[in-house]
Write a structure and sequence with these properties.
The complex is a heterodimer of chains A (407) and B (362). Helix content of chain A is 44%, strand content 15%. With 407 residues, chain A is of the alpha+beta class. Chain A has three domains: 92 residues, no CATH class; 110 residues, Beta Barrel (Butyryl-CoA Dehydrogenase, subunit A, domain 2); 139 residues, Butyryl-CoA Dehydrogenase, subunit A, domain 3. The longest helix of chain A has 29 residues. With 362 residues, chain B is of the alpha+beta class. Chain B has three domains: 110 residues, Butyryl-Coa Dehydrogenase, subunit A, domain 1; 89 residues, Butyryl-CoA Dehydrogenase, subunit A, domain 2, CATH 2.40.110.10; 145 residues, Butyryl-CoA Dehydrogenase, subunit A, domain 3, CATH 1.20.140. Chain B is built from twelve helices and ten strands. Classes of the chains: A alpha+beta (407), B alpha+beta (362). At the A-B interface, helix 8, helix 9 and helix 12 of A face helix 8, strand 10, helix 9, helix 10 and helix 12 of B.
Chain lengths: 407, 362
């Protein structure tokens, strides 16, 4: 066991801390999408989202290992540096680089499987926040069983003509592009009939309708396709290879949903809240039942954080086996966060239910918001039940469900 | 940066596991707990001592192996996995830690060398410091110790006993000294020994540094808690392995029950609950020797969290076995009971969580 990153990295940490000091209180222009859990002071340091992306790329704090010719920093991939950046930013409440489906999922896919032209065309604007992507995967009848999707693509006169419907499409309302799974080989076996297409959102026949979720804040959409026509070349991989292309990045999303540092910071915020909040004049943190549950949750979060260190270690040390430790991150991380936010609502009682711009609102209403949002994240990206199938089948070698005939 | 057990630790751990598989099958364990295999228990004991278990944490200058708590933690996982009938937590972990951290130079020389040779062995009674039940109390005064200690660990084979009063002062007595009465308790777990001990004005050797400092007793209890947590991890893992194995063999409705999601999900839940516990306990053990500022909180949280997780696993793994899980024949209950006692020993979860809150000045 050796938890030191070494002097080179401690130097790097100091450099990041200097950067955080310089940008303390940085704020975004009004049009930017800002994470709900962050609050910014009025400091006069205001940048646009895409300016902030450029600042971070130039510094090597974002898109580190992506080649310069595609708009990245052009350095080596370094898991420890990424971790130091994430934890220092989080401590200093400096906004991290933009994420989202284009950056987290499409860019890695393009780097691995895209043509040279596609890389040149799409990666740079995506990294700089100038090209926002949405993901067209789920359909009303293809959720957990994604490969049964039915949105149809036909090749007619050198163009793909697409008809069908997608659902749960986050950010579609302000995206420029969609990467989309479409059934192009209707006669092939179900997984072999899908292609991975790139669709401009302003194409005629593409209709985005907002689907309001329970938080009433973050928006999903339904996307309808009526003879949407795009060039034949807007495909990653070959016809019928879409399932493999999509799977190259699905693991990426599951890993990125849960940040142990963020969870630790939430526990600390909850502790602060419980020191301020009172019930019959007693501080919540002094009330034994709340105190006991708080400690139990803090312990759980600590276990999750240690588990993440172990998973990190396996990325740095070849041959270290942490198969199950990695596999459980999505399930445990989202369930834990939901439990934590929900407990905070409980300790505040009636006050915990206040929302939007209500009088007596605490912490921007973030506890109730994230309590609901994390329920969405438990369901999205492979539900907890699907995660348990994966863990039991791939982790524990238990038999798969018998297949139903003819499906 | 490397987070995990080292090759040496894994190698040693596997040796202990293999030794137990060879020498302490469930039939042997059953006979020992029924009181029919005293000889077998002695052999298991001396085999484990020959592997070095009694000397792990004793500094090299006193003839020990001078290893760290993480090493002892790795071993403890194996002992829990094999429901090993051996006095480990009290005799081989808490006692050496208490003397190393609380003894004068002379006291260390007097006890630690003999402990590393296994010619003396300690039972440990710190419950009255952690949280006294049933009005038990220990009083140390004028080199005499009196009172009653409940739930003393590992007193059965001990030549010496150590106790703590409510201030954290630690006193050592010989087991056969006049005024010492040892009453064996019968807990659900019969693989290890638990005793009530009455002391009537017994000559006591008080560990010198513990008169004015709680550091030694805290160190000993933190270490003991991490070791018990590791024992429960080992026991829980064995239960999961047994449940998964059984579910792949047992058929109902024309299918192995392991192909039903109801069963698969129970197994997935057990494993995803347990997996972070490994990292947590190793992390706590690492901090125990390397990061004193975090060590106490992590030891508390590791103990209470693993106790909660392993309790759930003990229940679910038994349920996966169906009616057979409830029988003595299948023997799942040995692990269930081991976990049950680990949970209460050295502080039940709520007791330990209150300590965790106080450590953070809440």
């Amino acid at each position: 066991m050796d938890l030191n990153y070494g002097p080179e990295y401690e130097e790097f940490r100091k450099e990041v801390q200097e950067f955080c000091k310089k940008w303390d209180g940085v704020n975004f222009t009004k049009t930017a999408v800002v994470p709900m859990s962050m609050s910014f002071k009025e400091t006069g340091k205001t940048v646009s989202r895409s300016e902030w992306q450029s600042i971070l790329i130039d510094q090597g704090y974002f898109a580190r290992s992506i080649p310069k010719e595609y708009g990245g920093f052009g350095g080596h991939s370094d898991v420890i540096k990424n971790r130091i950046i994430a934890s220092e930013f989080s401590n200093a409440k400096i906004p991290p680089a933009m994420g989202g489906q284009g950056i987290d999922m499409l860019v890695p896919t393009l780097l691995e499987l895209g043509t040279e032209d596609q890389k040149k065309q799409y990666i740079k604007p995506t990294l700089h926040g100038e090209m926002i992507w949405c993901q067209g995967y789920s359909e009303p009848n293809a959720g957990s069983d994604l490969a049964s999707l039915q949105t149809k693509g036909e090749l007619i006169d050198g163009n793909w003509v697409i008809n069908g419907q997608k659902i749960w499409t986050s950010t579609a309302q302000y995206s420029q592009m969609m990467f989309c799974l479409v059934r192009t080989e209707p006669d092939a076996q179900k997984h072999a009939g899908i292609s991975y297409l790139l669709i401009p959102m302003d194409t005629v026949g593409l209709d985005v309708r907002p689907l309001v979720d329970m938080t009433l804040k973050s928006g999903f959409n339904e996307v309808f396709f009526t003879d949407v026509t795009i060039p034949e070349g807007n495909i990653i991989g070959k016809r019928g290879e879409g399932w493999a292309v999509a799977n190259a990045t699905l693991g990426h999303e599951r890993g990125s949903l849960t940040d142990p540092n963020a969870t630790v910071n939430r526990v600390n915020s909850l502790i602060d809240r419980m020191k301020e909040e009172t019930l019959d004049g007693r501080r919540l943190i002094d009330i034994p039942v709340y105190r006991d549950k708080l400690m139990a949750l803090q312990a759980k979060v600590m276990a999750f954080q240690s588990n993440s260190l172990r998973v990190l270690s396996s990325k740095l040390n070849k041959g270290q086996d942490t198969k199950i430790a990695g596999m459980i991150q999505k399930l445990v991380g989202t369930e834990l966060r939901h439990e934590l936010e929900g407990f905070a609502v409980d300790v505040m009682g009636e006050i915990g239910t206040l929302y939007e711009d209500s009088p007596n609102l605490r912490d921007n209403g973030s506890w109730q918001f994230l309590y609901m949002l994390y329920l969405g994240l438990i369901i999205g990206g492979g539900t907890s039940q699907i995660q348990k199938n994966i863990i039991s089948e791939r982790g524990l070698g238990m038999p798969r469900e018998p297949k139903v005939q003819g499906v | 940066m490397y987070f995990g057990l080292s090759e040496d630790q894994i190698f040693f751990q596997e040796n202990v596991t293999k030794f137990l598989e060879d020498q302490a099958s469930l039939d042997v364990i059953r006979a020992i707990t029924e009181g029919d295999a005293g000889e077998a228990q002695k052999e298991i004991n001396s085999g484990l001592v020959n592997l070095g278990l009694s000397a792990l944490l004793i500094p090299e200058e006193f003839g020990g192996l001078g290893l760290d708590l993480l090493f002892a933690t790795a071993v403890s996982q194996s002992l829990g996995g094999g429901v090993a009938p051996i006095s480990y937590t009290g005799s081989f972990v808490m006692a050496p830690l208490a003397i190393s951290h609380g003894g004068s130079k002379k006291q260390k020389e007097k006890y630690l060398t003999k402990m590393s040779e296994n010619s003396i062995r300690f039972g440990v009674g710190f419950s009255e410091y952690i949280g006294a039940r049933d009005g038990s109390a220990i009083e140390i005064k004028n080199n005499k110790i009196s009172g009653r200690a409940l739930f003393v660990l590992d007193a059965q084979d001990a030549s010496h006993l150590m106790f703590a009063d409510s201030s954290g002062a630690i006193g050592i007595v010989a087991s056969d000294a006049p005024g010492v009465e040892i009453i064996q308790l019968t807990a659900v777990d019969k693989t290890r020994s638990y005793s009530e001990i009455k002391l009537n004005n017994v000559d006591v050797d008080v560990l010198e540094l513990t008169i004015s400092s709680k550091d030694a007793i805290n160190k000993s209890i933190d270490g003991g808690r991490i070791i018990l947590a590791a024992d429960s991890i080992g026991a829980s893992q064995r239960l999961i392995d047994k449940a998964v194995e059984y579910s792949k063999e047992r058929k109902q409705f024309g299918r192995v029950i392991g192909s039903f999601q109801a069963v698969k999900h129970m197994c997935a839940e057990m494993t995803s609950d347990l997996e972070p516990c490994y990292a947590m306990v190793w992390h706590a053990a690492h901090c125990f020797d390397n990061s004193p500022g975090e060590a106490r909180l992590m030891a508390c949280h590791a103990k209470s969290h693993v106790s909660d997780i392993s309790k759930t696993i003990a229940k679910k793994a038994t349920e996966v076995h169906g009616g057979m899980g409830f029988t003595d024949l299948m023997g799942v209950h040995y692990w269930f009971k081991r976990i049950g006692v680990n949970r209460q020993a050295l502080g039940a979860p709520e007791v330990v969580r209150e300590e965790a809150a106080k450590i953070q000045n809440f």
